[in-house]
Amino acid sequence: MTHEPPRNETPRASAVPAQPFPAAPAAVEEVIDSAPTRAEPQASPSYIWFQVLGQFGVFVAFITPLAISLAIRLSELAPGRDEYLGYITGSGALVVMLTAPLFGVLSDRTRTRIGRRRPFMIAGTVLGVVSLVVMALAPSVLVLGFGWVLAQIGWGQVLQNLQTSMADKLSETQRGKVAGLAGFATQVAPVFGVVIAGSFSGNALLLFLLPGLVGVIFVAMFVLFTREPDTRGARFDERLSPKTLFSKYLYNPRRFPDFSLVWLGRFLFYFGLTLNTTFTAFFFASRLGVEVTEVAPIIATLGLFGIGATTLGAIGGGFLSDKVRRRRVFVLLGAVLFAVGAIVMALASDVPVLYTGSLITSVGIGMFAAVDQALILDVLPEKATNAGRYMGIIGFAVSIPQAVAPFIAPVFLAIGVTAGGGKNYTLLYIIAAAFTLLGGLVVLRIRSVR
């Protein structure tokens, strides 16, 4: 299962909010690149590794249900109703879309001895575990969907605050590397989770709770072994009200154009990615001629091979983007690779070609996710004061596609299908490829980051 207060809401603290600068002309960019930069505080190696492990744990607990566990439970509760999976995942994403900026603002303004972010991680983990129990024991599709909504809120809050903590802590020269490591971890995590799920597909409780246990352990390690400043003395000039809270869901795109372009590129990519991945279990079952309950070990085996591909994309792209001080070209390359892989899968007529396409998409996802995360941190407005708010807004670029795409996907699946025929997964995957490619092209218009 990643904000800044308005100008009149600056906290009374020693930190001065970063101010936006207009895009520099191309001729000036070279001078800026060659000029000495002021040294930024570096996050410690222990913080980096606990951050990576924390995100790994959240994705094991949160994405395993999306990858396989929900499909298995749905096939038990409503056999043959594949489209229900889209409705369930879309509903959960819609709830997150409505709540993420609110929680981001509250996180920015939280006053506790243990800081701003960790209280939300603790509460989110508790709610996330409850959600797994609800899904495991759900007697109906409706209760299963309710459990997924709870999972989106709980584990989603943990992930959002982990990523906002990156904006709080990481220097510019660390963002690509750490995003690459985290991107690799979050891509490997579902594979790890599916391996666990595949071993316990006959036991609904273990199917959900064992991946959840991994999440609890690694999130607890981050909370216990990293430190945040005490925020009990923070003061704000403006009191929060329903009106001011609602206003924080919006911002002026013209004021932060590059942030807006990153938002749009991420939206397009994740719209295509959601179209591609929501029905993965059913797609593989259809192409391989097996039951959905038999797909878990197949996907897990493929996922193990995909670890190397994801490593190449996430870590290679992240580290190289820091080294050559370029983000946009790697984001575009990730989108191109994913689009190529999705088309190969869509047109696959045998298992080797299907697996080849999947491995290509793994490289693309790893590279795009890692470098795009670093790009977000590069252009995030007002990091010192409102990182939570703007990370919530950038979260719209993922949650809106996750809410909308699953409801639209059944329309594509039904095109050209005769009575009693199968679903049109070929068309769905080609459309997904087109959206991801557009997402990569959009970032070429960014000017403040190369």
Automatic annotation (TrEMBL):
Gene3D superfamilies in the cross-refs: MFS general substrate transporter like domains (1.20.1250.20)
Record localization: Cell membrane
Keyword Zinc: no
Domain Major facilitator superfamily (MFS) profile per the UniProt entry, residue ranges: 50-450
Major localization listed first in the record, in broad terms: membrane
Membrane-crossing segments per the record: 47-72, 84-106, 118-135, 141-158, 178-198, 204-225, 263-286, 298-320, 329-348, 354-380, 392-415, 427-446
Keyword terms of this UniProt record: Membrane, Transmembrane, Transmembrane helix
Membrane topology category: Multi-pass membrane protein
Keyword Translocase appears in the UniProt entry: no
Pfam families in the record: MFS_1 (PF07690)
Protein name: Na+/melibiose symporter
Species this chain originates from: Plantibacter cousiniae
